[in-house]
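Write out the 3D structure for:
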Amino acid sequence: MKKGLQLGTQSVAFDKPVHIMSSASVVGPKEGEGPLKDTFDKTVEDATFGKDSWEEGESEMLKETILLALRKAKLKAEDVRYLFAGDLLGQLIATTFGVMELRIPLFGLYGACSTMGEALALASMTVHSGFADTVIAAASSHFGGAEKQFRFPLEYGNQRPMSSTWTVTGSGAFVLSKEYGDVVITGITTGKVVDYGVKDSLNMGACMAPAAADLIYHHLKDFDRKPEDYDRIVTGDLGVIGSEILCKLLRDQNTDIAGVHMDCGMMIYDDERQDTHSGGSGCGCSAVTLAGKLMSELRSGEVKRILFVPTGALLSTVSYNEGQSVPGIAHGIVIEKGV
């Protein structure tokens, strides 16, 4: 495999790895009651984070997460060249209002729930190419704000089908550097928009699984690797239904990832106890799982190499109300224990 060059049709491998200096995660009360509760940096009992609305609360949550990641890296905001960040709300209002006072040059991103992968990909390419020494990649989501925008306000009390997922209230942030950090990014695969014609916005796992399958298949082909070359292939928020579809789609292409596959949406909640149905979703789902549990396992050496594949359902209230289907996208980040 040639390093430092474009690989195949969608991938890049870095000849010099990009280092993750620090990671941070902040979550809401429901996430703090789940199976991963001990892996998060901070759990807040007030889902508004002391603000007057869900949206303002998400902005505050994101700002706190970025500041925490900076403190862990022993840096200040002015030490950071660029910030790559996004959320689920219209015009990225959670991000823009949240980071405004930090005064870090911003690339605002939208990849639906795949945004954490998009941010890490663009941030790592920027560092590797020499256009910045230190950058931050971050993403957030909020259950209350997402429900109000995409479905029904919480006060409506609508019935959720078993295929639905629960948007995670959480944010994750990563400080990336050219030289310092014991966990590294060694390559990326950029996903394509994939549409299987699914129109059920309450079954996002089915909407996103084809994009995840396409990404993983092309990643393995581009890097000339097999699933067993990874300790874990971790999807973002396919949930129970989407994960089953993903594994079937890949088996149809003679690729079996069942032995190494994990899904952040299935890890973050205990459905039997927390009534979350198919699992967790939202930009924050994969962001906080990576920043907490997965980064801890990589730092300790328990895990040597993972393929991190956040997944996103590309819908809006406009497209959905006009009868459009819900396409999906996924991005792949190769993250390894540094030497």
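The chain has a mean pLDDT of 92.
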